[in-house]
Amino acid sequence: MTKLTVPIAASDLGQARQQIEAAIAGGAEMLELRTDYLENLSVDLVKKLIAEAKSAADRPLPLIVTCRDRKQGGAMAYPDQLRVDVLTGALKAGAEFIDFEYENFLATENRERIEVALSESSKGRLIMSAHNFETRFADIGRLHRHITTLYPAAIPKLVYTANHINDCFEAFDLLRKTSGERIVLCMGEVGLISRIIAKKLGSFVTYASIDEKTATAPGQLTIEELKGLYRWDDIGSDTELFGVIASPVAHSLSPAVHNACFADSRVNKLYLPLLVEGGQEEFDLFLRNVCARSWLSFRGFSVTIPHKANGLNYVRGKQGFIEPLAEEIGAVNTLLIDADGKLSAYNTDYAGALDAITSTLKIKREGLEDMPVAVIGAGGVARALVAGLSDAGAQIRIYNRTVKKAEKLAADFDCDFAGLDDLPNLDAKLLINCTSIGMYPNVDESPLPQECLKKGMAVFDTVYNPARTLLLKQAKKRRAKTIDGLSMFVNQALAQFKLFTGQDANPKLMRKIVSDLSQ
Ligand code: NAP
Question: Do residues 341 and 404 both lie within one domain?
Answer without folding.
Answer: no
